[in-house]
């Protein structure tokens, strides 16, 4: 059973930084896409940053140059370093995993089968 547990969310002032972590368990295949998604109140869930087995990354235009996704395969951990945070980044952030390392549209939420419970990020101006 795949389990994803996020941590690292919190409240920060605009311009600050946070690092999110996602601990993955129950998935032994080397083929996957994993990523971070977010959902603000009243808005649809959107892709933020994703990475696959081969280290290929994709980012939403709104976070390019500010956010960095990384993984530690040995520890089965996924990270999101968020710098220069803005109030628009306020949202619940979710970790997700899919068994396909060759997703055509990896930033699209409905491509993913497994989700964590989320961690809240609040950025105050």
Commentary on this structure:
The chain is mainly beta. 0% of the residues lie in helices and 50% in strands. The radius of gyration is 13 Å and the shape is globular. It starts with a strand and ends with a strand. The mean pLDDT is 96.
Shape: globular
| Order of helix and strand elements from N to C terminus | EEEEEEEEEEE
Structural class: mainly beta
Mean pLDDT: 96
Uncertain residue ranges: none
DSSP summary, beta strand count: 11
* H/I helix tally: 0
Distance between the termini: 40 Å
The description of the largest β-sheet is:
7 strands, mixed
Helical percent range? under 10%
Radius of gyration over alpha carbons? 13 Å
Percent strand: over 45%
């Amino acid at each position: 059973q795949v389990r994803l547990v996020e941590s690292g969310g919190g409240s920060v002032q605009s311009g600050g930084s946070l690092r999110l972590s996602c601990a993955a368990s129950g998935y032994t295949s080397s083929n996957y896409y994993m990523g971070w998604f977010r959902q603000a109140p009243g808005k649809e869930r959107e892709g933020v940053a994703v990475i696959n087995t081969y280290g290929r990354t994709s980012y939403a235009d709104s976070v390019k140059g500010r956010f960095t996704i990384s993984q530690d395969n040995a520890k089965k951990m996924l990270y999101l370093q968020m710098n220069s945070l803005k109030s628009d980044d306020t949202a619940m952030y979710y970790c997700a995993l899919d068994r396909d390392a060759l997703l055509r549209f990896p930033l699209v939420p409905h491509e993913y089968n497994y989700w964590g419970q989320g961690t809240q990020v609040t950025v105050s101006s």
